[in-house]
Automatic annotation (TrEMBL):
Official protein name in the record: diguanylate cyclase
Alphabetized GO MF terms: diguanylate cyclase activity
Top-tier EC class: transferase
UniProt entry keywords in alphabetical sequence: Nucleotidyltransferase, Transferase
The reaction(s) this protein catalyses: 2 GTP = 3',3'-c-di-GMP + 2 diphosphate
Organismal lineage: Bacteria, Pseudomonadati, Pseudomonadota, Alphaproteobacteria, Rhodobacterales
Keyword flag Lipid metabolism: no
Domain GGDEF: 201-334
Organism from which the protein derives: Tropicimonas omnivorans
InterPro entries: Diguanylate_Cyclase, GGDEF_dom, HNOB_dom_associated_sf, Nucleotide_cyclase, Rev_trsase/Diguanyl_cyclase
Claim: Zinc-finger is one of the keywords in the record: no
Length: 336
């Protein structure tokens, strides 16, 4: 731009449009542009300058992509009709605006007042705008407050929902867990058994009682007995796979559910391992305790429709182990 042109531009900027003082224009329209007859942006409001530094001195049609009115290429095109505009920055970020253009009394230029329209929320976040960047009467302020309020309410709601869900999950977990050992309880075991039977999958049930456990309680007290139960629970948990279920049904009675495992060799090896581990001396309450385990095993090939019958067969096999001398694993006869 020539020195003469720069002087003319300074003069144009020094003459406030519509006779308004610059402070008044900034307060009323912080997103305004004063455009000369040749399309040069002679003045930009403080918010527009914040969005894109150096707008003053650029050509409006080079800085912005005019989308409405279509084909607009002159200032007279901008103010034609109702002067409603749709435009956006040509360079990234290509923020979109809606605007109104009105002709200035002298010089053939235009005063263009812009707003973000429905993209205001994204613009506020992108440019970190605040209430001070908008006119005091701009409904955008109220919209921002509503958005902030909604965001706060949604955040509180999501947090409360997460807390409720977490509390519900914790309550359900507690309701399904044996308080002493952390294994599944009878309620959870019965539910899992019902699901396996209904699903028609083959599986095995281990029914197990501790041998000589009453003597531990009678001789060393219930605290020592609890330590023994905790040790047995740890042994069971350490021997089963992911997807298997170990449960304490009460007292010294334990059960295992082993989905997909029906091979007699594998089941027998597991039973022998459990008995051998449980027969190892257990330190409980400062004393050494000795217990063993009797196990009854019942196998479902996926056709058993009665969980009670399956448990009854496992229980009968358990008592067969006890009658045969304890510390052993006995298989129930499969139903024909």
């Amino acid at each position: 731009m020539t020195a003469s042109g720069q002087s003319d531009l300074r003069k144009a900027r020094s003459a406030p449009p519509l006779g308004l003082a610059p402070e008044a224009l900034e307060r009323l329209m912080p997103m305004h542009l004063v455009v000369g007859a040749d399309g040069t942006i002679e003045q930009a409001g403080r918010t527009m300058t914040r969005l894109r530094a150096g707008l003053a001195g650029q050509n409006l049609f080079e800085a912005f992509d005019l989308r409405r009115p279509a084909g607009a290429c002159s200032v007279s095109d901008l103010v034609a009709g109702e002067g409603r505009l749709r435009l956006g920055f040509r360079e990234f970020p290509r923020t979109a605006f809606k605007a109104t253009a009105v002709p200035l009394p002298e010089g053939g230029g235009a005063l263009v007042n812009l707003s973000f329209g429905i993209s205001i929320v994204d613009a506020v976040r992108q440019y970190d705008l605040s209430a001070g960047d908008f006119a005091e009467t701009d409904l955008a302020i109220e919209m921002l407050y509503l958005v902030e309020a909604k965001h706060a309410v949604m955040s509180d709601s999501e947090r409360l929902t997460a807390q409720i869900y977490g509390a519900q999950q914790a309550a359900e977990e507690k309701a399904a867990t044996d308080a002493l050992t952390g294994l599944r309880n009878r309620r959870a075991f019965d539910s899992a058994l019902q699901a396996l039977v209904a699903g028609g999958r083959p599986f095995a049930v281990f029914q197990m009682d501790l041998d000589h456990f009453k003597a531990v309680n009678d001789t060393h007290g219930h605290a020592a007995g609890d330590d023994v139960l905790l040790r047995v629970a740890a042994i069971l948990s350490g021997q089963i796979r992911t997807g298997d279920i170990a449960a304490r049904l009460g007292g010294d009675e334990f059960c295992l559910l082993l989905p997909g495992t029906v091979d007699p060799g594998r089941l027998s090896a597991l039973g022998e391992t459990l008995i051998a581990r449980i027969e190892e001396p257990i330190m409980a309450g400062g004393v050494t305790c000795h217990v063993s385990a009797s196990i009854g095993v019942a196998v479902s090939r996926g056709t058993d429709a009665d969980p009670a019958s399956l448990l009854s067969r496992a229980d009968a096999a358990l008592y067969a182990s006890k009658h045969a001398g304890r510390g052993r694993c006995t298989f129930a006869e499969e139903e024909g």
